[in-house]
Design brief:
alpha/beta, five-stranded mixed beta sheet, about 15% strand
């Protein structure tokens, strides 16, 4: 007999099948395929982080890609083992939340699941914002492409650098922000990484609360422009920050 959460699986399944219909290559991107033939500079552990689900875009290994569409919705039929486990997990998540961290690999600012595909799928179906994850960073080598250049600029400061998931559409913006943060941090007598992280976190939250997330550039690009006009909003009262962002 169908359980009370099987209907949630049906909804997610329909979303997954629609995604496949609308996207000819609509299964999950696979990191091991993306990295095939590419040189990397190894891996480092970043520890436990809260990762925005919008940044979790694929699977680390090809074996799991056919079970989910590119939007992470399941595409295996009702009655499958995946469907049963997914429905149980949905119930657990709704009643008590998901407590165990998933495992992700990060490559150039995007995340790929090594363990926890069903948890990611359930959380995305619930429109959750973030997931707690054990993250391993795959370090790229310079290849001259804009996204690699942007990423390596950020890693010049620290190979573990991760400032609120900042990302930019072109090189040069992070070094300028980092220089600004270091100068401000000296005056404020705080850590520059913390200052930049907290400033961007406050900006990002208000930026999305105001419904600006659909604008064409990255949130980091708009943060860069904001800081050029107003400076870093470290410890700025929320109402003033909201007025300036608007």
């Amino acid at each position: 007999m169908p359980g009370p959460y099987d209907e949630q699986y049906k909804k997610a399944y329909r979303l997954g099948r629609k995604y496949l219909t609308d996207h000819p290559d609509g299964y999950l991107p696979v990191l091991e395929t993306i990295l095939a033939g590419r040189e990397t500079a190894g891996e480092i552990a970043l520890g436990i982080l809260d990762v925005p689900l919008c940044k979790v875009v694929g699977t680390a290994f090809a074996g799991r890609s056919a079970a989910f569409a590119g939007n992470f919705m399941p595409v295996l039929e009702e009655g499958s083992e995946l469907a049963k486990k997914w429905s149980v997990l949905y119930a657990v998540c709704e009643e008590q939340g998901i407590r165990d961290a998933v495992s992700l690999k990060e490559y150039k600012g995007l995340y790929y699941v090594t363990e926890g595909h069903k948890r990611i799928s359930v959380l995305k179906s619930m429109n959750s914002y973030a997931v707690t994850a054990e993250v391993t960073r795959v370090l790229p080598v310079s290849d001259g492409t804009p996204d690699t250049t942007v990423f390596l600029e950020m890693l010049e400061h620290d190979r573990r650098y991760l400032v609120g998931h900042l990302w930019f559409s072109e090189p040069g913006r992070f070094p300028a922000l980092a220089e600004m943060a270091e100068a401000e941090a000296e005056q404020q007598e705080v850590d520059a990484v913390r200052l930049l992280r907290d400033s961007f976190s406050d900006f990002r939250r208000i930026f999305h609360e105001l419904g600006l997330g659909a604008l064409p550039q990255t949130t980091g690009d708009y943060f860069f422009t904001f800081c050029q006009v107003y400076g870093l909003p470290f410890r700025l009262p929320e109402e003033e920050l909201r007025r300036r962002v608007r």
